[in-house]
User: Fold this.
Amino acid sequence: MSERLTPVVNDLSRPFWDAAAEGRLSLPHCAETGRAFWPPAPTSPFRAAGAVEWREIEAAGMLLSIAVYRRAFQTVLKDLVPYGIALVEVAPGVRLLGHVENPDAAPEPGSRVSLCFAHPQWSESPVLALEQS
Amino acid sequence: MAFLEGKTAITGVGASRFERRPGASVLEFAGDALDTALADAGLEKEQIDGLVVQVGSPRGADYDTVALTFGLSPSYCGQTWAHGRFAASVIIQAAMAVSAGLATRVACLMAMKNSDIGRMGEADNPFYYEQFRENGGPHGEEGHIGMSSPIAGAAMGFDLYCRRYGFDRELLAEIPLTFRRHAQLTDDAVMRAPMTADDYRASRPIVDPLRLFDCSPVGDGAVCVIVETAGANAREVRITGAQGMRAGRNEFIFAPAGLGMAQQSHRRRTRAEACSQRVYEMAAARPEDIDVLGLYDSFSPLPLYALEDFGFCDAGEALGWIQGGRIGLGGDLPTNTSGGQLSQAQLNGWGQIRELVVQLRGEAGQRQVARAARAMWASVGGDALILERGAG
Assistant:
């Protein structure tokens, strides 16, 4: 079986991926309450049949946790170990996961961090990642 | 009011050997579990008219294959998905079918074989594509960023738990060490070698902060439970409380509600809320009435969350509360007394449910909890049962 690291890109999630291709972070928002939410939904999870608007937000937030992979579950990830997965709150109550290339040099949870979209060889899609200088 | 007025019971339990042998057939395990459960209940297979399967293909056998292979002719069948989580829910479905008159004797079967399919997240595992499931994998996976396996969500949840409540992660050792000691008293446990605190500390890191010994080992085997109307059998165990799985934005499969993992809120369930859940109200019981407990433990932090979510202690207390032997045999709340998924066998909690029945019958041998009259199965997602010794 081939190891393709390909997320589902379809009508529901395409606004996220279109923005990501341009390096921008766009999230679905409840049109009525203005609240951002994740993951994408065709109607607002906060209102019955509530309309959804995609809006760009700053790709930054509070780092809450990093889980560090010491074992690779796929061949294509083998050379990346150790790598981390970060949990970042990018809007009130909205948390996204991001790749952490160098977890040993990552800031402590509780820090404000910036996110970016990386284009590593192992992924066919942009990868939301912790910005590390 | 007791679950279905207390009129349904587990009348038989059976299991295959638990092992890790790629050349075995999952149907051999299923057949052994079915046969021993039928013999235990004093039934012939022709008397089985209901079949509910927990784990189907590709790592288990689907209900139709089970019936075909073993010559069963059920007229009521059900099946849950191919993961864990729904152990109580399967038994609940069987009891409801009996209560509603859709069946009279239901075999609940959890048979699966994992030793030949690699680890979840790996490319040769049939669940590989679940990490790319739309809106996130079943354990929070996001394969395209490298979050490819169930353990990462469990690791992150435990990191959040320790940070929020100020615990040293090394306290977690109490869970795998306690369950390993229980497995050493359990003839059919897969992991019986002694484990010391040093062994635990030295075990290979998988996804920080979790190590190899925080993970249940790959397991092959089957457990079967027979559900009938109460009163059929003197060794029966009555089902007096029940509760199904929760889901929603406040739930994450490897974290308690309100921990702040994924899209969860930060509001944990209060002790009063925990103790007034349906499973307790139905059984007219409180946590302190439970004599022996079974908890879902595919990863070692998970029992902590179930202890808090079901009111055995307050939110944020469990990692301290379990220390000093409290959940071991001889302690206040003997838990996973046959070794759990961590050491007996990874059978989605069915090893624990079988053990609770054995304990309530007083047939647990050197593991027997004295005067065990009321037992509970609970998982962090809400799936729960309260079982009581039959009148016989």
